[in-house]
Amino acid sequence: MPDNTRRSRDEGFWQTFADRYAVEPGPLNLENGYFGRMSRTVVEEYQRNIELINRGNSVHVRQRFEQDESVKIRAQLAELIGAPAEAVALTRNASDGLQSLIRNYNRLEPGDQVLIGDLEYDTVKGAMRWLARYRGVEVIEIEHRHPASFDSLLATYREAFVRYPRLKLMALTHVTHRTGLVMPVQAIAAAAREHGIDVILDGAHALGQIEFNLDELGIAFAGYNLHKWIGAPLTLGFIYIAPQRLADIDPDMGEMHFPVTDIRARTPYSTPNIPALLTLPLVFEEHRAMGGSIAKGMRLNYLRNRWVNAVRGLPGIEVMTPDDPRLYCGITSMRFTRHADQQVMVERLLNDYNLFTVARSGAACGPCIRITPGLTTTAADMDLLTRALTELR
């Protein structure tokens, strides 16, 4: 058994990391996809930074943060994703960044078409529909067949590319927030290029639990969160624009604080959460010490498979996410097929078993319950979930 696989199942090894996080007594949190926990050391660093900036105020910010610290942090962030520093700009979160990319994409003409799927995040859908009102484009909306497969997902996009020849731009989600389905980004992006279609990638749930290379994926525009699987404080995300494609995204609403050749002009200029930003060097260090995205992803996948393998195929339960390792990560959704209202079952899981989950709707495949283990979750927790699902079905 490879070392990474063996380590993903080593409860003692992962307990040493779990012990670094403070956890409030109460329900077992299986809704870790919302945002991630900061370690105790990151919380302490964050608190120190709040006090530091409060004491130093604009003297520290003008003399040290703007001139030196922010430059180093941006370089470290770029190194984390294997990109040049000039390709990234910090934002408050992935949604803010994706909205900036969509509204400032300048290669659309009235009559062009843009594409969204049923599994996209609602904020992204709203931004693409905004283009229809203010740019005169047509929004094409597709639905994915269920159950999904690698070939069916790719075929759905290929069919759309042929059927709608005026497509110029599409949104694509790397890890879908509704079901946890991992899209075959590289194959879809390659097919899109064949038809002259640009892709804006929503990577909110991917960074930190999936190892990827943006050049290999063929992605020029993307938005990410740092507060989900990387372990940063809330209010931190970033955009990525391939340097050779920067001119295809306009400065945000005429932003003039940075030169037109600087990616930072593609986001709204404002006072950021400086104490949170100052924690990032420690956050990146701890992420790497834990083994990075590969180790985190394998651990989360192991926890996911522990409950999925136990309940898939049981009457009364449908697991929404396929078992093709190319198409799943730690986030996976299911539903009780004998119960119409999944929210009722979310409440049963909480009230009867002390398990906190969340209902999700909006996908063409129907309402579901999203289950997301985290870095403090144990194999025993997954066994409790298995027992609950088996009894409630």
UniProtKB/TrEMBL annotation:
Residues spanning the membrane: none
Record-annotated Aminotransferase class V domain positions: 44-370
A GO molecular-function annotation: lyase activity
The entry's keywords: Aminotransferase, Lyase, Pyridoxal phosphate, Transferase
Domain of life: Bacteria
The keyword Thylakoid is assigned to this record: no
Protein's UniProt keywords contain Acetylation: no
Pfam families cross-referenced by the UniProt entry: Aminotran_5
Protein name: Aminotransferase class V-fold PLP-dependent enzyme
